[in-house]
């Protein structure tokens, strides 16, 4: 999820020497009597076990010494950024050596350190980012400790208005969650947390991607299933840039929400056009208000999708302005404006011709790709295949007769066939 270079200070010496350095760092700036009260227990721990004691006792002693340091870590300390980072790197190192990452003690100590880091002054944010990312990278890839560490890192970034410093890729997050040994419920909660912070940070498009992941993570028995599905549907309809509804419609949670009041509107955007949206808006004004859906924005989106569906049937051909105007229920004078809009949206590629009053379609997106669309694609491919075979035969015959005009004509046919191939 997050990577950075680790910087380590206090790296040399025996365990006792390293722990002494850690303890002394935690007491910097304290009065002498307070420092002495902290150092004395450390001396007692280090001096109470003889050399011939069993190894397991030495482990207990080391843990006691480390816990002394942990108990006295009240903040990032008084040091340079390099010293702060080095202190926590060494502290994490000993913590992960002395405790299994799956143990309750490790979870307790890491949680305590995360609280300390979160409560530290905000002006130390840069070093805290590095400390947290170092801790994340120091834990095993499957460790459940990674989830609270990364959560704290995101909380810090949101608090400082710097969410851009933390990479948030849906594919990377989902891959990491598959590796981490935590419950499905914890994974779902984490994805919901990401949705919330992205919305809070004014990134609704990025939040939508994680809404889908969150909805997919919920088990069929979850009581949240329908509300999460409804939120995802509303977000897709509300966001101007979301024009591909097929991934949403394939999510089990959304399929299970077929009786929800928003589901018919989603189906309209997947299958129908402007008239159906207007009819729904007329009869469900309260639904639009509840989910903060703007009618004019919905009509604009469905026009773009209807344009795309119409263009899909004209790939490799000229689509008349009059047909576009009829489908979109617009004045013919507005066709070129809508053509530019649909091209900018990435739904259609083509070339406008004022002379022929048509749009030459070279590519168009289908709202869904099911049997009907596969059959249309098969038909285009077969047409192209037959045309190409004819061109090859004409070229071969022309070359045998040495007729350059016939070869040129064949090349023109070949170019037309290539357009169909590209469209397919």
From TrEMBL:
Keywords, comma-separated and alphabetical: Cytoplasm, Initiation factor, Protein biosynthesis
Transmembrane region(s): none
InterPro entries xref list: COPS7/eIF3m (IPR045237), eIF3m (IPR027528), eIF3m_C_helix (IPR040750), PCI_dom (IPR000717)
Domain PCI span(s) in chain numbering: 203-366
One GO cellular component, as annotated: eukaryotic translation initiation factor 3 complex, eIF3m
Listed GO biological process terms: formation of cytoplasmic translation initiation complex
Superkingdom: Eukaryota
Signal sequence segment: none
Gene Ontology molecular-function annotations: translation initiation factor activity
Protein location: Cytoplasm
Family membership: Belongs to the CSN7/EIF3M family. CSN7 subfamily.
Described purpose of this protein according to its UniProt entry: Component of the eukaryotic translation initiation factor 3 (eIF-3) complex, which is involved in protein synthesis of a specialized repertoire of mRNAs and, together with other initiation factors, stimulates binding of mRNA and methionyl-tRNAi to the 40S ribosome. The eIF-3 complex specifically targets and initiates translation of a subset of mRNAs involved in cell proliferation.
UniProt cross-references to HAMAP family, sorted A to Z: eIF3m (MF_03012)
Subunit structure: Component of the eukaryotic translation initiation factor 3 (eIF-3) complex.
Protein name (record): Eukaryotic translation initiation factor 3 subunit M
Organism: Scleroderma citrinum Foug A
């Amino acid at each position: 999820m997050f990577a950075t270079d680790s910087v380590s200070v206090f790296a040399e010496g025996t365990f006792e020497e390293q722990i002494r350095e850690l303890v002394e760092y935690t007491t910097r700036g304290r009065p002498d009597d307070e420092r002495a009260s902290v150092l004395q227990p450390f001396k007692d721990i280090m001096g109470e076990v003889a050399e011939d004691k069993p190894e397991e006792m030495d482990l207990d002693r080391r843990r006691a010494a480390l816990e002394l340091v942990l108990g006295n870590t009240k903040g990032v300390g008084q040091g340079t950024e390099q010293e702060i980072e080095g202190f926590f790197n060494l502290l994490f190192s000993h913590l992960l050596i002395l405790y299994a990452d799956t143990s309750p003690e490790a979870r307790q100590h890491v949680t305590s350190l995360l609280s300390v880091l979160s409560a530290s002054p905000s002006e130390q944010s840069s070093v805290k980012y590095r400390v947290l990312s170092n801790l994340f990278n120091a834990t095993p890839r499957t460790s459940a400790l990674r989830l609270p560490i990364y959560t704290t890192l995101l909380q810090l970034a949101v608090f400082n208005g710097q969410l851009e410093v933390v990479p948030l890729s849906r594919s990377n997050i989902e891959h990491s969650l598959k590796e981490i040994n935590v419950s499905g419920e914890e994974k779902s909660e984490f994805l919901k947390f990401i949705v919330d912070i992205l919305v809070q940070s004014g990134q609704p498009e990025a939040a939508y991607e994680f809404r889908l992941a969150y909805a997919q993570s919920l088990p069929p028995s979850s009581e949240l299933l329908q509300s999460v599905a409804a939120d995802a549907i509303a977000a897709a309809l509300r966001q101007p840039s979301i024009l591909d509804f097929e991934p949403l419609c394939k999510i089990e949670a959304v399929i299970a929400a077929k009786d929800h009041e928003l589901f018919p509107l989603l189906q309209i955007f997947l299958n129908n056009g402007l008239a159906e949206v207007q009819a729904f808006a007329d009869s469900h004004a309260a639904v639009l208000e509840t989910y903060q859906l703007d009618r004019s924005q919905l009509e604009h989106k469905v026009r773009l999708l209807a344009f795309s569906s119409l263009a899909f049937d004209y790939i490799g051909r000229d689509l008349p302005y009059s047909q576009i105007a009829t489908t979109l229920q617009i004045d013919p004078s507005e066709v070129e404006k809508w053509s530019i809009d649909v091209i900018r949206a990435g739904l259609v590629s083509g070339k406008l011709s004022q002379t022929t009053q048509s749009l030459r379609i070279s590519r168009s997106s289908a709202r869904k790709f099911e049997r009907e669309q596969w059959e249309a694609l098969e038909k285009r491919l077969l047409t192209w295949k037959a045309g190409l075979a004819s061109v090859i035969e004409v070229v071969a015959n022309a070359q045998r007769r040495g007729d350059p005009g016939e070869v040129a004509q064949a090349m023109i046919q070949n170019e037309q066939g290539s357009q169909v191939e590209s469209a397919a």
